[in-house]
Amino acid sequence: MVSLSFDSQFARRDPRYESSSGEFNETKFSENYAFLKDMRKQEKEELLKQLKQTKDEERKEQINYLINRLTNQEKADEQKEKQKQKVREIREEKGKKVFVNKSHLKKLELVEKFKELKKSSKLDKYMQRKRKKNISKDRKKFQIKRK
């Protein structure tokens, strides 16, 4: 009886953690896989056509789930691009060696959101909902402390 050891010949490795695979370059990755955005758009259009044609409720739910997933991916990509653009703008203003924190980016996003809400005159409604939400959170905290 001969025992063969495949461990030494075919060692599995994860390229994310191997130094021999090189460094991850996000810009190169996005350039190399830019065709995926077009594919997603086509897939979304096909799914919308299928949604109109199907009569089965379960299949409609599946298609809606897939469409929502694709739109969320698009929104996430757009948001990432916006953040990169903001970082570029900040670095141009202050100098190239400035590190921008996530908290700083969140503050900038909030300021932008408030400006948009003010333009569309929905700021009052938004602030009212925020207050209600915070009040309910506070009530829950106080109820937990009392018990």
Automatic annotation (TrEMBL):
Residues 37-93 form a coiled coil. One of its GO terms (biological process) is maturation of SSU-rRNA from tricistronic rRNA transcript (SSU-rRNA, 5.8S rRNA, LSU-rRNA). It holds the Pfam family RRP36. Residues 128-147 have a biased composition (Basic residues). Its main location: nucleus. Associates with 90S and pre-40S pre-ribosomal particles. This is rRNA biogenesis protein RRP36. It comes from Leptotrombidium deliense.
